[in-house]
Amino acid sequence: MSLVDTYRTIDKIFESEVFKDKGSKFIGYAFPVIDEGQIKIYIEELKSKHHKARHWCYAWRLGKENFRFRANDDGEPGNSAGQPIYGQIQSFDLTNVLVVVVRYFGGTKLGVSGLINAYKNAAKDVLEVSKIVVKTIDLHFVILFEYEHLDKVMRIIKDKNLTIVHQKMEMSCEFEISVRKKEVESTLLAFENLRCLTIKEKEG
């Protein structure tokens, strides 16, 4: 079985066209996020921007392999808003994303089935106009070696097309490198074969 080391997300904020049903207006927003702190900020910004709206329903998904998610109905009937929004995040196979649907109430109740349809379509609309990007799952490693072995280390970094995230160049050198998950085994083997350095996965 091949190792999955990519994930799908979006790279910037997107907004949908207004979805209308019986006078109510629904506007979808999609945000790239990496933590719950960002999520709170974006939701508060939308509440300020659309301060006359009735509801700001949302769903988010975080993580590259082990996912965390939340769906919030924000006062709408249970599972009529947040869950349909989250269903679209799943349908588009996205993560590190927040989708918010802002509702302006039009005076006529839509019923649970009408709400599910409206929130689902508003979320679908914004994700359809979003630019989806595929990113690799990378692990970070720290390499410790003496300066005299720099050429050997750099040769492997070049051959493997690795990214140096941080480096300290003195008599004793320290490199932090980023390695795509499916390349980890061969990369570790290449460095360990040098026998003139130590390499370990960076914690956190």
Q: Explain this structure to me?
A:
Belongs to the IMPACT family. This is YigZ family protein. InterPro entries: Impact, Impact_N, Impact_N_sf, Ribosomal_Su5_D2-typ_SF. Strands 2, 3, 4, 5, 6 and 7 form a six-stranded antiparallel sheet that branches. Strands 10-11-9-12 form a four-stranded antiparallel sheet, covered by helices on one side. Strand 10 (163-168) and strand 11 form a beta hairpin. The protein has two domains: 6-135, Ribosomal Protein S5, domain 2 (2-Layer Sandwich); 138-201, Alpha-Beta Plaits (2-Layer Sandwich). Helices cover 30% and strands 36% of the residues. The chain is α+β, with helices and mostly antiparallel strands and 204 residues long. It is elongated. The chain has helices at residues 36-49, 82-91, 111-129, 150-159, 184-192, and strands spanning 6-10, 14-15, 19-21, 24-32, 55-62, 68-72, 97-104, 132-136, 138-146, 163-168, 172-180, 197-201.
Largest sheet: 6 strands, antiparallel
State which percent range the strand residues make up: 35-45%
Low-confidence stretches: none
Q: Provide the residue-averaged pLDDT.
A: 95
Number of extended strands: 12
Element pattern in H and E:
EEEEHEEHEHEEHEEHE
**Helix/strand/pairing class, anyone?**
alpha+beta
Spatial shape: elongated
Which bin fits the share of residues in helices?
25-40%
* Span of the ends, CA to CA: 28 Å
CATH architecture of the largest domain: 2-Layer Sandwich
The number of helical elements comes to: 5
What is the CATH fold-level name of the largest domain? Ribosomal Protein S5, domain 2
Q: Report the CATH C-level class of the largest domain.
A: Alpha Beta
CATH superfamily of the largest domain: Impact, N-terminal domain
Number of domains: 2
- Could you tell me the radius of gyration in angstroms? 23 Å
